[in-house]
Amino acid sequence: MNLVWRLILGAVFIAATVGLCWSDARLPHPGWVLLPVAVVLSVLAADELLSLAAERDLRPHRAATLLAAGAIVASNAVVVYWPLGGGAYPANCSIGTLGWPLATTAVALMFAFVVEMRRYRAPGASIANLAAAALSFIYVGVFVSLLVHLRLLGAAARGGSEVTMAAGLLPLVSLVAVVKACDVGAYTFGRLFGRHKMSPVISPGKTIEGAAGGVALACVAAYVTLRSMGTAEATSGVGWLIYGGVVGVTGMFGDLAESLVKRDAGRKDSSRWMPGFGGVLDILDSILFAAPVAYLLWAAGIVRP
C-alpha cells in the first residue's frame, strides 16, 4: 500500500479517536461513549488471537472465548452506567470498581473449563485449548478493562470547563500519546542510527538505538501531554519522566509480545481488515501491554492531573 493511502487512513483513525474522546468528555459521566467501543474492540482483538492460535492447531471454542472477552470488558458497565440510576457509584462497595472485570474473568475461566469438558473426546488438546482461550480473554479483556479504568481515574478532575474535561481524559490520552510517540521515535531513530539489533529473532527491525530514541520521545510526549491537558502540578516533579520512560519501555515490550505471537503463528499481521495497518491487535498491542503499568502509576500518584 502506498504512503499516501496509509496517511489518509491514519488521519481517519486519529480523527475518529479524537471525536469519540471529545463526545465522551461532553457527557455527564465518563465512559458512556467509550465503553461500547472498548467492548467491540475487545471482541475483534480476541478473534484475531484465536485466528493466530489456529495457525498452530489450537482451537478453543470461538464463540465462548469471544463471549468471555466481551463480557469481561462489558462488566465495567456496572461502574460506568451506575449514575443512570440517579446516584454515584458507592465508594464503600465491597467489590470496588476493578472487582467486576476480575470476578468476570474468574467466571470466564470456569466457563472455559466447562466448555472443554463438553468437547472432550480424547487426550491431547484440552490443556492447549484452555491455555489459548485464557490467553485470548485475559490478555484482551483485562487489559482493555484497565484502559476503561484509566478513563474513570480522570473523572474526579472533571468540572464544567474545557480544561477540566481535558484533565478527565488525561490518564487515557497520555497513555496513547506516550506509547505512540515511543513507536514513532523508535522507528525514526532506528532508521537513522540503528546498528545493534534489540531482538533479532522476534523482531529484526528493532534496534537498541531506536529504542533509546523512542524512550526519549516518549518522555517528551509525557511532559507535553501532562503540561497541556493537566495542571502545573502535573509536571512539577519527575513523575512525568518516570511515566514517560516506564510506559514507553512497556509499550515496546507490548509490540514485541505481539510480534512473538505472530512469529510463532507464521503471520505478518494479526488480520488484514485494515490494509496497511494490519488488525486491531497490530494497532493496540503496545497500548494494551502498557495499560496495567500506566494504571498503577496513576493510581499510586506518581502522575496526577
With strands numbered from the N-terminus, the spatial order across the biggest sheet is 1-2
Number of alpha- plus pi-helical segments? 10
Distance between the termini: 40 Å
* Principal-axes shape call: globular
Please write the string of helix (H) and strand (E) elements.
Answer: HHHHHHHEEHHH
The tally of beta strands, per DSSP, is 2
pLDDT average, as an integer? Answer: 88
Biggest sheet details: 2 strands, antiparallel
Question: Stretches where pLDDT falls below 50 for ≥5 residues?
Answer: 157-163
**Rg calc:** 20 Å
In short:
This protein is mainly alpha-helical and 305 residues long. It is built from 10 helices and 2 strands.
Structure notes:
The chain has 305 residues and is mainly alpha-helical. The chain has one domain. The protein contains 10 helices and 2 strands, in the order αααααααββααα. The protein has helices at residues 3-26, 34-54, 62-74, 77-80, 99-119, 126-153, 162-193, 208-229, 239-265, 280-299, and strands at residues 197-199, 203-207. The radius of gyration is 20 Å and the shape is globular. The model is unreliable at 157-163 (pLDDT under 50).
